[in-house]
Design brief:
Strand content: 35-45%
Helix content: 10-25%
Distance between the termini: 35 Å
CATH class of the largest domain: Mainly Beta
Structural class: mainly beta
CATH topology of the largest domain: Pnp Oxidase, Chain A
Strand order of the largest sheet: 5-4-8-11-12-7-6
Number of domains: 2
Oligomer: single chain
Shape: globular
Order of helices and strands: EEHEEEEEHEHEEEEEE
Largest sheet: 7 strands, antiparallel
CATH superfamily of the largest domain: Electron Transport, Fmn-binding Protein, Chain A
Length: 184
């Protein structure tokens, strides 16, 4: 590929076959473009929890390992989320890796206005008072190390302080706007 000097946009050389890049429109809405591309990205599904006056939680597909020393992870949370006011003040959060058998739990924690900690959700208080969900593949309790503003979200950095990786099953994935099972 060669670059168009004025815009820095890739242009196909005459000898290169056409590809999806040749259809890219620089005029596309960047937010829509981001959502469209990331629908093609399969992501693991987690639920983040914290405890204020009452427990809060939300489904996250933005979970990422950041560093091994110290053990850090990150996730994004929308500032318009009902969980954000508690996450914004919490000293610790719970991170739960969901199994493919927990699609309904993922949907509950993703649904606005749902009774996330109601009778259908098995949970217990864990270290630092963080709500821990039952039946997950693994869980971590993290001390909140940073909250970084990022557009209409905050990126939260957590330092792992406790956890359990011993849950059984296969991971739940999110792809093309749906919760899916891992296929071999």
């Amino acid at each position: 590929m060669t670059a168009t000097p004025a815009l820095g946009t890739p242009r196909l050389a005459a000898s290169e076959p056409p590809s999806a890049f040749s259809d890219f429109s620089a005029a596309a809405d960047p937010s829509a473009l981001l959502r469209s591309v990331f629908r093609r990205h399969a992501a693991g599904v987690a639920v983040i929890t914290a405890c204020g006056e009452k427990p809060v939680g939300f489904t996250a597909t933005s979970l990422a390992s950041v560093a091994a020393e110290p053990p850090l992870l990150s996730f994004g949370v929308g500032t318009a989320s009902s969980s954000w006011p508690v996450i914004a003040e919490a000293g610790h959060v719970g991170v739960h890796i969901l199994g493919e058998h927990q699609r309904e739990l993922a949907e509950t924690f993703a649904r606005s206005g749902a009774d996330r900690f109601g009778p259908g959700t098995g949970w217990r208080p864990g270290p630092e008072g963080v709500p821990l969900l039952d039946g997950v593949l693994g869980w971590l309790v993290c001390r909140v190390a940073a909250r970084i503003p990022a557009g209409d979200h905050h990126v939260v950095i957590g330092e792992v302080t406790a956890g359990d990786p011993a849950g059984a099953g296969r991971p739940l994935l999110y792809h093309q706007g749906r919760f899916n099972a891992l296929r071999d």
